[in-house]
Amino acid sequence: MAVVIRLQGLRVTAGAEDIRRFFTGLKIPDGGVHIIGGEREEAFIIFASDEDARRAMTRSGGLIKGSPVTLLLSSKTEMQSMLERTTKIVELDQKSRSGDTPPPLLQRASNTDDVFLFLKGLPFSVTEKEICDFFSGILVEEVVLVKNRKGSNNGTGFVKFATRQDAMEGLKRDREYIGSRYIEISTTTLNDWYRATGGVSRSPVAQRHIAPSDEEYCVVLENLSFAVEKEDIKQLFHNAKLEDDQILHLIDRDGKRKRSALVLFKSLRDYCEALAHEKRQFLNRLVHTRPISRENMIALLKPQGVTVQPSGNSERFQERPSSYSSDPYDSEKICIFVRNLPFDVRKVEIIDFFHGFNITEDNVHVLQDREGAGVGKALVVFGSEAEAMRALSLDGRRFLGSEVILKCISRSQMQQLGHPPLSHQPSAGSPSLYL
């Protein structure tokens, strides 16, 4: 069965042959390398078999043309989605150049005074001053050079001009040179500016805080109807495809629901789209959407006994069950929460990882999503807290191509992850868990 791996950190000078050379000895079918590029410098590689993909994952951290690359398990669905999105961007860019349709810049002119251009093909050593010099005679308000994960320029950037006319003049310099490289210039949107840079603009939306990291995409909704349900909020932000554990209603000291709720987003794009509507009518009330910092969010959650736990690429609210007990037995840490596993990992493979410990398949619970697919996480129950603590010595060890992350958790925390209550001895035949 063909398996897809996502590669990140690919140098712009690297091609498909460089990728194939990196995976020498492994079977990659014809047409199995798809270079995406983008902010994370990505590519997708299709391997002919599960065994080829497993061996490929062991090469994560290796060098392609002198640059270390990161390998992640992916899927055909994710790859196809990225390819379609990249194709649409190229088509829109070509359409704006053809002259058949007015450029998006002109179409948006009546809606905003802030107009941005996107620059591609910049020298890696370029400075903001050199870009301003490139647009000499045009009033440039701000330049942002996009960085890669190492903090170096990735060859792209955004320029904000003072007026629409300035931006239109800047667009005319498409394919002119900075040094020895010609620069491709195209129009872009305010949302693209936010998503790529987290920058600050004169517009009312941009004056508000934009989340500085991938783990702080949270907003607070205020003045909600008391009758609002999570399904209503999902419809409000339908593009974000929210799950129930990304939405939390705030309650007062008496346990009654307030007119406020917190919403966690998986991506900066969804977060920015939410903030684009600071005030809107929702269920016959004027609802306010405001950003909230991680510190303020945690302060709001403490009285409710709620924590924020990471899950994949986003965070989720973990609500303490009403039956939560302070019994010492509940706080006994006999379980290891295992993360960063292959999505198709089997129980017997996890038992092999914990070789030397008294573990059977009944003690291993592979976490699955609501469709029954693996999520790369598992719970392993040990006979005692001391044994679980000894198992922590394996934290960070490489396993099936990835560094496994281990955390010792209590019985009550196991229940928060969806695990059924345990008797004093681990029970057999526990059902699948949902996270």
Automatic annotation (TrEMBL):
Biased composition annotated in UniProt, kind: Polar residues: 306-315
GO molecular function, one term: RNA binding
Domain of life: Eukaryota
UniProt keyword terms in alphabetical order: Repeat, RNA-binding
Pfam families the record matches: RRM_1
RRM domain boundaries: 115-190, 334-411
SUPFAM superfamilies registered for this protein in UniProt: RNA-binding domain, RBD
Keyword RNA-binding recorded: yes
Location of the region described as Disordered in the Swiss-Prot/TrEMBL record: 306-325
Protein name: RNA binding motif protein 12Bb
Higher taxonomy: Eukaryota, Metazoa, Chordata, Craniata, Vertebrata
